[in-house]
Amino acid sequence: MTRFLTILDRVEFWLVAALAGIALLLACLAMVSRYIIPDLILDWTFEVTIFTAMWATFLAGARMAGTGDHVRVDTLLTYLPGSVRTWLAILACMLGVGVAVFLSWSGWIVVEEAYRWDERTTSSLRLPLWIYYLSLPVSMALLAFHLLVRLARLYGGSVRDDDVAQNH
After folding, report:
1. pTM for this structure?
2. Among 153, 46, 132, which Cα is nearest to 90's?
3. What is the tally of structural domains in the chain?
4. Which residue range(s) make up the domain with 161?
5. What count of Cα atoms within 13 Å lies in the side-chain half-sphere of residue 157?
């Protein structure tokens, strides 16, 4: 399982980096082409930039929240005993899994509707919108997976006092 998680982490990292890099390059291309070559019509660049930025953001958010590397307010937690922090972390993971599963399920409904109605963007590429919408259910399923792994580690005792104890 550890090997699988390491490979998944690397794939997520490089996928997010690639998507964010593509979004940045396309935004720069659109800006430069607008001022240097105004006759070159790239009406699709912002659209693809939005698609890739959304995917990168959602995947990175799932990765960061699932591994506990996200920003959070832990002022109160630092004053609590380690066992209380651990149980609060377990509760937070369980609630997070519930929310992630709900968002993944409801996002999948939107994806199915967009696919069924063949919704497309208005640019010359006419990209299917279900690709854009798919970022929510995929990233939320990934978040639920990461939270379940974290929950198992917390409950099993392989992680002590959550990351609050590690940071203070």
Report:
1. 0.84
2. 153
3. 1
4. 2-167
5. 1
Q: What is the DSSP letter of 141?
A: H
Q: What angle do CA 65, 68, 74 make, to 5 degrees?
A: 105
How far apart CA 98 and CA 151 sit, in angstroms, is 12
Could you list the mean pLDDT of each consecutive 10-residue stretch along the chain, which spans 168 residues?
88 95 94 84 88 95 81 79 85 93 97 96 91 96 93 77 47
Phi-psi region of 68 (alpha: psi -120 to 50; beta: other; left: phi over 0): left
* 84 to 77, 88, 112, 163: CA distances (angstroms): 9, 6, 42, 13
Which residues share a beta bridge with 128?
120
- Radius of gyration over every alpha carbon of the chain, rounded to an integer in angstroms: 20
Cα within 13 Å of Cα(23), Cβ side: 16
